Amino acid sequence: MRMESLKILFSAEDIDRRVQSIADQLNTAYAGKQVAMLCVLTGAFMFFSDLLKYVKFFPQIDFVRIASYGSGTTSCGKAELLQAPRIPLAGKDVVVVEDIIDSGTSMAFLVEYLRAQNVKSLRIAALIDKIERREHSVTVDYSGFRLLSGFVVGYGLDYDERYRELPALYTVEFEDQA
Ligand code: IMP
Ligand code: MG
Fold it and tell me: What's the first-to-final CA gap in the chain, in angstroms?
């Protein structure tokens, strides 16, 4: 049987400090603007809701879902939009909120889709910018943490749909057990 063990990477307090700092930057950049904030499901749900509690510019909010194909801990370079935004985005300042950018496949795909909606501007906030496996160049405008490598769970991020509920971030170590 495959078992995972978790090692703490960033505490809930560490995360809250970074979330507040990103919110401060957004509050400065977007005061008085017509902003749409898009949460990329499922992984960004906790980051999104915590971030929103600190923003002061009354954004419209919506949710998108992307499938990027692959299994286990890798994606294989193809992406598809499973849930499109329902609010009109043309002419708006759009902020995409994502859990983690790894290969960049999902985000590069979403950026192309959103640009085609004639948004006024587009910026990306990612809780984690994981740089080692980047295959598609993506500009992360606001990032919580930069990581070289490793598989991370908690605070919205999953392994096989588990661990999303944890309030801190952990790295997963995979161990084979008899
Ligand atoms: P990308 O398309 O390779 O950039 O992968 C992005 C998606 O893969 C993220 O939105 C996550 O859902 C998932 N992912 C990538 N790395 C991790 C990780 O370390 N932990 C949990 N999910 C991950
Ligand atoms: Mg995701």
Answer: 6
